[in-house]
Please model this.
Amino acid sequence: MWRVLFWFKRDLRTRDNRALYEAASRASELIPVFVIDEEILGKLRIDKGDERLNFLCDALRHLSKEIRLYVFYGRTCEVFEQLLDRHKVDAVFTAKPLTWDGEERCAEVEALCKESGVKYVSVRDNLLVDVGSIAGGGNFSSFYRRWLRMVDDRILPEFRVDKVPSLDEPGFEEACRRVGAEPPKFWSVRGCLERLEGFDFGSYARFRDFPGVDGSSRLSPAIRLGVVSIREVYRVSKGSPEFVRQLAWREYYYFLKEKFPWMKDLELKYWMRGIEWENDPSLVKAFMEGRTGYPIVDAGVRQLKTEKWVHNRVRLILASFLAKDLLVDWRVGERFFREHLIDYDQVLNVGNWQWASSVGVDPLYLRVFNPISQSRRYDPDCRYVRKYLPELEGLSCEAVHDPLKWRIEGYCEPVVDHYQRVKRFKELASRRKR
Ligand SMILES: Cc1cc2nc3c(=O)[nH]c(=O)nc-3n(C[C@H](O)[C@H](O)[C@H](O)COP(=O)(O)OP(=O)(O)OC[C@H]3O[C@@H](n4cnc5c(N)ncnc54)[C@H](O)[C@@H]3O)c2cc1C
Model:
């Protein structure tokens, strides 16, 4: 039996936590730790009072009710150096990382363990299928067929972690106070757990695409931090094939990352590399400030900035608009989402930005989301736009949908003409194809 240090990362739960289960079954003593990494906060531009920090600390508070958790603030490697020195552990257990940055961070800790003669054990979790074992490349449909056959939704038996020593180390309160976390406004663990229990998965397929309706699960922040087990999410939602399909999309991007690790920086469609993006700073600024003059786009940016989350349909419209209407490199948008999204995941964000910019795995050559027809179709009563742009309250819905046809007094004019710009985008793309 070992003295084990258990490193929580994006698996902030004790229920059905495979790495924790493995660690607990090998440990005579187990020290659970979480590091609020200052480099990650810097990279995501998370500051005091940011909802992402508030939600993280809420998750740490929640976890601390289940297990005596030690929480540190600093650089992961430096924290580990001190912990290994102070506590003389035999092994470090943790979940296998899913993203490129996560892998880098884990590799550093693993190297440190090696230097100190400490075993480092990483356990696969937070996926329904070991995507690395799926053969071949393949489009989503063929991946999905194989994925469905391989789903492993076995839930672990309840287990107790009762061998945690009492140490003179900080808990979540001290660390969270230090980084300036506040009570969350929009996202809480309790809210997510209630959502999982109460969500109507039966109506998901009908309503999931309408941002003005509360029809998608809004579970992505909880899935991202692992406050719920993906197997439990799958089991609860099994009756909704459309929902399960979305869980498969999540795993498809991790599968692509395994096959094509370079997709982090490079377009999956090789003929779309080196496209001559215009990257006009004034258009980028208008987009990021939610002043493009296209209400559905501006409402999306406002939602992103206030709630740190955006409905999937609107994410698609935003990404398509930035790349195909503003002719801005998808990486700029990817960074913008990175700096705001509460469910930000490096692999899912890169994969989706590539898809929506037609440089990734979308099998269609050039798919364009027309902000006017998308607004008409998916926000027919303008409920979504009006929620985030209350200044458009008195206006007819048709004027809200089509700012090219109807000039809206007191609201910014469209920064570009959608139809002209998309023509230009197609020209630029076809130059690469030749
Ligand atoms: C440009 C762009 C960037 C995105 N960046 C992220 C990101 O950083 N992190 C993230 O979790 N999702 C990302 N998504 C995917 C998707 O928008 C969100 O997962 C979804 O909106 C979350 O809301 P929900 O939980 O209500 O989803 P639901 O519709 O209820 O779906 C259930 C779950 O399935 C998964 N899922 C659904 N759609 C996708 C998808 N397209 N790709 C991967 N997983 C999916 C999520 O885990 C989600 O919680 C992005 C999509 C786009 C178009």
